[in-house]
Amino acid sequence: MSQAVTIELGGGGDHDVRALRNAFGCFTTGVTVVTTCAADGRRVGLTANSFTSVSLDPPLALVCVDLKSSSLPMLDAAGLFTVNVLHADHQALARQFTRKEGDRFEGVETETWSTGAPVLPGCMANFECVTHQVFDAGDHRVYVGRVVKLRYDPDHEPLVYLQGRFRRVHVED
């Protein structure tokens, strides 16, 4: 049996960061690919697990993106994005959208809805959003989007992220 770890934060340093990362890693999250279009028409996408609903009325969702992400300037300029919620068979797709080099969309089918942001078909859910609010919080930029169109297919097993690894959730019938 493991022993719980208690750490008082505040001294800064790598041990605080590692402890915080380990503790946050105990919370299971879904895995998404956030997509948009650059001003020149290039498709932009990145894997993100910081996604949540904010409000039903108005319909708002948020995603957090690391300030060091190469996709940040395009997300800022576009004013729109799609959050594509991945299912358990999408581990390779999730990894593809973390690549540092090359076209992340290589071999990936997309659709286009009203905003023009790429939509990945076959996902558990897709949320097409128009940017509602943007603000920096620590080392991430928070994008709150107004959902203008959605699609969902709950008959899949979700892809989740827990303790630094992709995991599967086995749902009982």
SSE layout and pairing:
Blueprint: H1 13-24, E1 29-30, E2 32-37, E3 43-48, E4 51-55, E5 60-66, H2 72-78, E6 80-85, H3 91-96, E7 111-112, E8 118-119, E9 125-137, E10 140-152, E11 159-162, E12 165-168
Antiparallel strand pairs: 1-11, 2-3, 2-6, 4-5, 5-10, 6-9, 7-8, 9-10, 11-12
Give an overview of the whole structure.
This protein is mostly beta strands and 173 residues long. It contains three helices and twelve strands. The strands form three sheets. The chain has a seven-stranded antiparallel beta sheet with strand order 3-2-6-9-10-5-4. Strands 1-11-12 form a three-stranded antiparallel beta sheet, with no helix packed on it. Strands 7-8 form a two-stranded antiparallel sheet. The mean pLDDT is 90.
